[in-house]
Amino acid sequence: LWVTDAGLDAVVAAGGPQLRETVGRGVAVNLAPGASVDRTLARLQQAVGDRTEAAEPAAVPPELANLRDVRTLPVLLAVFLAVVAVAALAHVLVTSARRRRREFAVLRALGVTGGWMRSVLNSQGSVVALVGLAVGVPLGIALGRVAWELVAERVPLTVHAPFSVLALVLVVPVTVLVANAAALWPGRRVARQRPAAVLRTE
């Protein structure tokens, strides 16, 4: 309970000597951004001398300490999901190149160059990645905010929903680049296959 000095004196006087022994006075100090906690506490202790028991940092609530302990978990989860997404996209492209060997061979026999055939798989990977972004980014932002609000209500904490414009701007070109990188190997296989051999076996 935070009260003024006069209010505290009135409460202690009304409560008797037992209350006087259990009630303490404290001063909360908000440090400037970037200030050294250890240096500031040492200067405060030196300034107040023996007029206070100790100058020490505020105790961190256990709920907040638990959140700090697991703050790397969302990053690890994001990296894991990104690896799974890239692996799934690569599997789709490899499967597409394998199942459509005959179509690619026919195109190659008609004079289509290997670079154009590689661009087909690059385009397919880019389209899949962009569709995933169009669905995943809004859904991820909505679910992330709801999940964080539930966590913040239990701690409790004030909810300040983060919104990184830079991350949203970078996620599109980075995703397209990764998708095109995943299409390199199947595109190279398609471009190097011999149409006569493929059509004969088909």
Walk me through the structure.
Helix 5 (73-99) packs antiparallel against helix 7, helix 5 (73-99) runs parallel beside helix 9 and helix 7 (114-154) runs antiparallel to helix 9 (184-192). The relative contact order is 0.10. 73% of the residues lie in helices and 0% in strands. The termini are far apart. It is built from 10 helices and no strands. It has helices at 5-15, 17-22, 37-48, 62-69, 73-99, 101-109, 114-154, 165-182, 184-192, 195-201. It is rod-shaped, with a radius of gyration of 32 Å. The longest helix is centred in the middle third of the chain and has 41 residues, at 114-154. With 202 residues, it is mainly alpha-helical.
Shape: rod-shaped
Structural class: mainly alpha
The share of residues in helices is over 70%
Question: What summary fits the major beta sheet?
Answer: none
Mean pLDDT: 81
Q: Strand percentage, roughly?
A: under 5%
Q: Number of helical runs?
A: 10
Low-confidence stretches: none
Radius of gyration, rounded? 32 Å
Say how many strands there are.
0
Q: What letter string, H or E per element, gives the SSE order?
A: HHHHHHHHHH
Task: Tell me the distance between the termini.
Answer: 83 Å
